[in-house]
Amino acid sequence: MNDRLIQTLLPIGADILRSLMIAAGIVVFSFFLIRMIPGDIVDVMGIQGTLTYGQQDAMRESLRLNEGWWSQFTAWLGMVAGGDFGVSLRYGTPILDLLRVALAPTLILGASALGIGLTLGVGLPVLACVFPKSIFVALVQFITLWSIVVPTFSIGILCVIVFAVWLGWIPAIGNMVVPAVILGMDTAGTLAKMLHEDMVDTERAAFVRTARAKGLSRWQIVLRHILPNALTVVVALFGILLAGALTGAITMEVVFGLPGLGTLTLQAIQGRDYPVVQAVVIWLGLTVVLANLISDLVQRSLDPRIGR
Amino acid sequence: MTLPALLQLRDLTVTIRTSNGTIPVVRGVSFDLFAGRTLAIVGESGSGKTMTAMSVLGLGPPGTPMTLGGEARFDGLDVMRMSENEMRALRGSRIGAVFQDPAGSLNPLMPVGEQIREAARAAGSDRSVARTKVSALLDEVGLAHLPGIAGRYPHELSGGQQQRCMIALALAGDPDLLVADEPTTALDSDVADQIIALLATLQTRRRMALLFISHDLGVVSRLAQDIIVMRDGQVIEAGSTRQILVNPQEDYTKALIACTPGTGGRPRARLMTLDMIRSGAVPGPKRPVVPGPVVASVRDLTVRYPGRGLFRPGHPALQGVSLDLHAGTSLGLVGASGSGKSTLGRALVGLVATQSGEIRVNDQLLHRNGHRLASDRRQVQYVFQDASGALNPRRTIGQSLLEPQRIHRVPLGTTDQMLAEVGLPADIAERFPAELSGGQLQRVTIARALALRPACLICDEITSALDVSSQALVLNVLSDLQERLKLAILFISHDRALVEHFCDKVLIMTDGRLADVDLRRPVADVSSSAPIVAEPA
Lengths: 308, 537
Description:
The structure holds two protein chains of two kinds. Chain A has helices at 2-35, 41-47, 53-62, 69-81, 95-130, 135-149, 152-166, 177-203, 206-214, 218-236, 238-256, 261-270, 274-302. By secondary structure, chain A is mainly alpha-helical.
């Protein structure tokens, strides 16, 4: 029994360890990646013509940007380890306060997009499997094609023009429903395509024939036998889907003028507000790592064959 | 008998629609199966035996439209006119089914007890009744002694245990008829024997009718009172088991009996084939072979498969294996799946690295990491189980046959001659693998393996995907070639009767270790159709 416990816990520990290593990698990369773009915040302000050369030098010194990357990195790492992400170079406010304000719209947008995506992306293939000759099969194909062919930002701009400018149904800035639906459709398409194909494959499996031979109803066969077996593949992709929803949320925020993480990040990158960019990248990265870890663990609990 | 038959088929036809048009797979089959009796349908793959049985259950292959004709009555009910919902009420509760592949037939994500419980619920048992039924059924199929069996997942069970669970599942609705479609084909012969015994016991105890489908007359003769021999969707011969086995009327039935290895009689040099029966030829008795010099030798070979990922221990596949292969002889290697017999073959050709021990071919010590010189590779060739997978589907047979010679830069032979060696017509060289039968494909891969004139041939389950008459052809071709070319053959198989027919010496492998076998051990005689005694499970 004890042996068995170790056998189950060991791979989970390995998963967690791997996630921690990736997280550490993200922290390091976020620091150096943003510094690879030429020019720092002082240059940006200098180009805008607000600072003299003397002021620029003084500003670099006060922000410690004149020091080498390595000493900046160790200083920053020490701060992050203490849970302090520092102060925005541009606004002078603590970054955690900025994040707190910006997080809400992004979280609401990403979560509702994921919700719509999961509902449509799982619901449609299940219905298409239970009723194989119905409209649902066509709907799965439509939503799949939609997510491949229609980029979210272009349909987003189109929606702003049609619904906000021409029809006046929604405000041009600050609407949540339309971007959530657009992102949800996108996620649903990816999910529905994979799940539908997996379910069609699983349909041919011998254990589905066994289920039919038992005399189970079509719904029982699909929900208890086909779906769980097809889902194991999809669960593994949950982390990627979440990453897609988050990055999609960032573009949607910019298109629909939402004051979320996306808008904050875009401004921070353009203004070379290093600590803000680093903080956002770390937060998003850790979310995706966490989602991947969770999907691994869920998959492990769904499929008894993994990790033995 | 005045009672009407439980299952009555009259002129049953089954047509499937594929992209290449409609194909009749069952063409006018009629039979009666009475309550409490066992009827076997015997035939080769593609004979329509499975389709006949599945049409009774209303279970066609998914995605392939099936049209039924004729009449099928189960307990007086017209199965053909029933709606899907009415059929569903029949399936599970009145007709149970057991299938060929027990590992695939169980849902991998559900504990077996839960799957049996679900079947009992679907057949109309109450929640509490279904729960007690699960343990009763597991006891009935002889699995009760395993602790926590109901909570185990299919992958935690052996093939035999999986098939026992499948049988428990099929019995969950206390059916009047059990359809068993090749239930032992995927199992090792010892385990298959136990399953047959179990089915026999259950059938008698429950007084249910059993429709047993198999390609193996040896298996069938131990269970069935009546046999139907099918070929190309038609009934060739029908009668009592004794009548069919002792006094077969049709050439095809005779061939089917004769070309099954181990079906009684003296060991012969060659297996009977349909052509031999028709021409009245009988192969001569088996002659003892004189072993030639040692071609390949293995000493204390150890192979460990690494575990996947961090912190995962590996598992040993071979633990100190030693053997010698002599020119002109066949060494049989039997063992359950996972026992390491294929690993040994793979280690010989360098497909897996070895941890310790040595492999010598023609007295040359071979590299431990699996690295082989071109000249080493030429000496040992491998024939795989899945012939259609071993041939590139986009190359003609001729291109595939000449490839080894191109790779090794030796003068190209003619495909005509290579094909003639394995008894195939020359025009096959122009065709693609998809156009040939399984038996033809396997002979092509043998011809290709022999293209470089190796000293040693490794045959890994080469006939397990073939039916008995193709198997006889392939093995006869191999025997001819061995005599002529003085080949050393390592013959890997899980079918003991087959290995004992073909090989001069047999080794048994269990958990990566070898043991000798006495070849003089009598093989089960199928001509005696006495009912077998159930083994205590």
